[in-house]
Design brief:
single chain; alpha/beta; TIM Barrel; eight-stranded parallel beta sheet; two-stranded antiparallel ribbon; 14 helices; 12 strands; binds 2-phosphoglycolic acid
């Protein structure tokens, strides 16, 4: 099953200066979104300044949301406010909200995130749900990683809907560290998550749900990670603030391009056309052939045979000019009633 790739740019609490927003917006607007969904998570403070500035279809995706709506919720954002700004997506569960701030900030639990997920979906907002293990868990091996991710996903299971939820697998140890999971590590984990969804939810949901990789993704490692069959995109932090973000989008769009689209691209470049009679075969365009033929034809002095379709004969003028008999016969023919006037010799 082909899944449309999706790449998100998480600006976190960046940039510092309002004056820098323009260049950050330009990085997002430089992305070709023809074959890849793109979303961007501006900092909550800048949201109102930028939410209508994305011209290539990138979806503005807040980094958090409450689960109560508008009202007396200091420091929060509400889904109803999103809707009135045309915002369709929200990111929840980023490890920096699950207690990886490095500050004694209360962590968001998986149960709380399941509540948020259900609430957002009910409000018609689609969700990117981030999960991922810290280093000590990774060091125990893939079984432990999977068990950790499953604990995070379990409360959300009833709400997993491939059309409305994207999972972002982000190993905490690779976020902002420059240490990317190897393609083998990422693929193994993505596949294990997908297999678990197939077993616990449904094969259809598992086949259709998109799982992004996050953690020091950049233009350099994106092509190799994109080649992994269970990686459907990236959630990008640092590199989403740089021009290379567009290269990450291009890398996965290219890797996941459906076969027919890939064929279309080559086909368009080739200048070939469908063969007029052999189904499925390609031929040099008829226009090239006819153009070449026309040139030869004009030079040859031949004319279409009056009765045998597709055959050619020496034209009257050519024949007449070349032989006395021809010119005599042409004169006779021209003198017959109803015939065209003889051409001047
Ligand atoms: P990074 O961040 O790309 O800077 O590692 C990813 C994320 O936190 O979503």
């Amino acid at each position: 099953m082909s899944r449309r790739p999706i790449v998100g740019g998480n600006w976190k609490t960046n940039p510092e200066k309002v004056a820098d927003l323009e260049s950050k917006i330009a990085n997002i607007n430089a992305c070709d979104t023809t074959n890849c969904d793109v979303y961007v998570c501006p900092s909550p403070l800048h949201m109102g300044l930028v939410y209508d500035k994305f011209t290539k279809g990138a979806k503005v995706t807040p980094q958090n949301c409450n689960f109560k709506g508008c009202g007396a919720y200091t420091g929060e954002m509400a889904a109803d406010q999103f809707a009135s700004m045309g915002i369709e997506w929200c990111l929840i569960g980023h490890s920096e909200r699950r207690g990886e701030f490095g500050l004694p900030t209360p962590a968001e639990s998986s149960d709380l995130l399941a509540t948020k997920l259900a609430y957002l979906l009910e409000k018609g907002i689609k969700c990117v749900l981030a999960i991922g293990e810290p280093l000590p868990v990774r060091e125990k091996g893939v079984e432990a990683v999977l068990a950790f991710c499953i604990e995070q996903l379990k409360p959300c299971l009833p709400h997993l809907d491939a059309a409305k939820v994207v999972i972002a697998y982000e190993p905490v140890w690779s976020i902002g560290t420059g240490v990317t999971a190897t393609p083998a590590q990422a693929q193994e984990t993505h596949k294990a998550i997908r297999d678990w969804i197939a077993k616990e939810k449904s094969a259809e949901c598992a086949a259709a749900i998109r799982i992004q990789y996050g953690g020091s993704a950049n233009a350099k490692n994106a092509p190799e990670l994109s080649a992994c069959p269970d990686i459907d995109g990236f959630l990008v932090g640092g590199a989403s603030l740089k021009p290379e973000f567009a290269e990450i989008v291009a890398a996965i769009a290219k890797a996941k391009m459906p076969l027919s689209a890939q064929f279309e691209a080559v086909y368009k470049k080739s200048g070939l056309v469908p063969h007029p009679t052999i189904k499925g075969a390609l031929a040099t365009p008829a226009t090239v052939l006819t153009r070449r033929f026309d040139e030869q034809y004009k030079k040859s002095g031949l004319v279409a045979h009056p009765t045998i379709k597709g055959a050619f004969v020496v034209s009257d003028a050519a024949w007449r000019d070349a032989s006395p008999a021809g010119s005599a016969m042409a004169a006779v023919r021209a003198s017959r009633p109803g015939s065209a006037k003889p051409e001047k010799a």
